[in-house]
Design a protein that fits this description.
It is a single chain. The protein has one domain: MetI-like (MetI-like fold, Orthogonal Bundle), CATH 1.10.3720.10. It contains twelve helices and two strands; from the N terminus they run H-E-E-H-H-H-H-H-H-H-H-H-H-H. The protein is globular. It holds the Pfam family BPD_transp_1. It is a multi-pass membrane protein.
Amino acid sequence: MKMRNVTYWIFLAPCLLALFVVLVLPFIQGVYYSLTEYNGFQVNEFVGFENYLNIFKDEQFLYSLMFTGGFSIASVIGINVIGLLLALFVTQKMGRVNTIFRTVFFMPNLIGGIILGFIWQFIFLKAFEGVAAVTGLDFFKGWLSNTETGFWGLVILFIWQMSGYIMIIYISFLNNIPDELVEAATIDGASTWQRFWRIKFPLLAPAFTVSLFLSLSNAFKVYDQNMALTAGGPFNSTQMATMNIYDTAFKIQDMGYAQAKAIIFLLIITIISVIQLYLTRKREIDL
């Protein structure tokens, strides 16, 4: 028994060491730097909690947090609604066509965020301007030069990228719902909507837990799409929290302050994610 325990720890040690070196040690180092005046090369002064106090006076960072929160809410709702609808569509009995649709819907997730940003930048700037010229509708003009439409441009891009990925999760859970339950409801005269809402939807609660967590955490971490599509413009009005932290660290060279922002941002994401997991897990039903 003792030999087995020793072997267990021998095999586990490299993984624990890697986690410590890659995650734990940088985090501890980052907490220390957040308490200092650090420019990326040397620590000039230990300032304690001054960096954290300055965050509450930083209007641009507070705005970027609110902008990121609004973006995350809109994106999470859109991604999960569309992802579920796509999953319901491709789980219909359509033969080999299902595989083609699944591949097509999942493909945007394979494209890098920078490339996606430039693709949609072309659509919003060139394609929309062409539509505006043909139809005469001002709605399609200047999508990325306006704060409101720039916001929805980011949401559309992110939904297009993530919906296919979330679709796969819903597909796996839909396929695990016993056919007997659906058949029994059909025999009892339940309509298509009633079968979905009364049987499938409650049994998809574990899928909602996973999908909401993934879409929420990814929405908060968006950076490359934001940089490629709007670069935070106009006048930083579409700047997300990650871009604000990056600019503070590498443009202003105030890495101690940027690290304090990053830790506050991490705490916000952690708290929201824990609350989301707690609430959604309460709704899960075991088959």
